[in-house]
């Protein structure tokens, strides 16, 4: 052995993982795992997008640009589980800048896709992630329309829905998801959700102290009508510029009131129709 070469255990300990490997769920409760994506650090390299496709063996989306930006994927879909968005913004003073964000499934705390699924294909796994079991999916598409973020898609090949699994297989082996592993700027951070939220709040404070007062967190806390997200973001512009809804709507909240209003309207129309026919007789 070369005396100048350090032992293997020294090399391994020199590069520790970015998060503490999760415990065995049989030993103790597992913390909810998630993503914190800091868009101020994203350089648009698309390494996360490529790593996601490579690890999950997802097909290519082609090599044709959309024409809207330096982008050939366009949006999240059944074959694109990580999507790096490029948005060019022009200021009133004539300057231009790029907004870049690596989008992904939000793994919502109260996921409407899970509630919409009639077969139980969508579940919360032991890491608190929204996991889609493709072998149970019947391809109805209810989850696709229930998601307010446009995350899910249905494949033309097998007819089933597909989306980000947060690399469940890697997590089960104590590894971080492929997208977070390859991110060169640490824009995508992975770990226990509560710890990530604390880190994210400190990051916002740090940016605001540097004069970037527009920095804020999207999805770290609950919205007006929607739960908090286990994959949340640090943004500096309006959510719509990142293809995110300002106030996402949960399709099943207030459903009872809508049903009641519909029934009442139906009864009222029936009564008016009966009265009209009675007058004609």
Outline the fold blueprint:
Elements: H1 8-14, E1 33-38, H2 47-56, E2 82-90, E3 96-104, H3 112-116, E4 122-124, E5 130-132, H4 142-146, E6 153-154, E7 161-162, H5 168-172, H6 178-182, E8 188-192, H7 193-209, E9 216-218, E10 231-235, H8 255-280
Parallel strand pairs: 1-10
Antiparallel strand pairs: 1-8, 2-3, 4-5, 6-7, 9-10
Short note summarizing the structure:
The chain is an alpha+beta fold and 281 residues long. It has helices at 8-14, 47-56, 112-116, 142-146, 168-172, 178-182, 193-209, 255-280; strands spanning 33-38, 82-90, 96-104, 122-124, 130-132, 153-154, 161-162, 188-192, 216-218, 231-235.
Structure write-up:
The protein is of the alpha+beta class. Residues 1-25 have low confidence and may be disordered. The chain folds into two domains: 29-250, Alpha-Beta Plaits (2-Layer Sandwich), CATH 3.30.70.20; 253-281. A four-stranded mixed sheet has the order 8-1-10-9. 29% of the residues are buried. It is built from eight helices and ten strands. It starts with 7 loop residues before the first helix and ends with a helix. The longest helix has 26 residues, at 255-280. The protein has helices spanning 8-14, 47-56, 112-116, 142-146, 168-172, 178-182, 193-209, 255-280; strands at 33-38, 82-90, 96-104, 122-124, 130-132, 153-154, 161-162, 188-192, 216-218, 231-235.
């Amino acid at each position: 052995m070369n005396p100048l070469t350090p032992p293997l255990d020294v090399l391994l300990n020199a590069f520790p993982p970015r998060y503490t490997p999760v415990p065995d769920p049989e030993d103790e409760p597992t913390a909810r795992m998630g993503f914190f994506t800091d868009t101020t650090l994203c350089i648009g390299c698309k390494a996360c997008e490529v790593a996601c496709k490579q690890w999950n063996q997802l097909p290519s989306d082609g090599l044709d640009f959309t024409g809207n930006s330096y982008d050939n994927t366009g949006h999240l879909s059944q074959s694109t589980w990580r999507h790096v968005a490029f948005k060019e913004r022009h200021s009133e003073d004539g300057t231009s800048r790029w907004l870049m964000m690596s989008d992904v499934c939000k793994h919502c705390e109260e996921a409407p896709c899970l509630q919409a699924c009639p077969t139980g294909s969508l579940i919360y796994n032991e890491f608190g992630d929204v996991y889609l079991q493709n072998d149970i999916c019947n391809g109805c598409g209810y989850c696709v329309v229930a998601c307010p973020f446009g995350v899910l898609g249905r494949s033309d090949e097998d007819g089933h829905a597909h989306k980000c699994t947060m690399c469940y297989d890697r997590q089960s082996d104590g590894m971080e998801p492929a997208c977070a592993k390859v991110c060169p700027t640490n824009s995508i951070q992975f770990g226990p959700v509560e710890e990530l939220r604390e880190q994210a709040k400190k990051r916002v404070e740090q940016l605001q102290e540097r004069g970037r007062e527009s920095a804020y967190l999207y999805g770290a806390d609950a919205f007006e009508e929607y739960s908090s997200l286990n994959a949340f973001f640090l943004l500096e512009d309006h959510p719509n510029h990142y293809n995110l809804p300002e106030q996402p709507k949960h399709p099943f909240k207030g459903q009872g009131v809508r049903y009641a209003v519909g029934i009442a309207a139906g009864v009222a129309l029936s009564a008016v129709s009966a009265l009209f026919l009675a007058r004609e007789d």
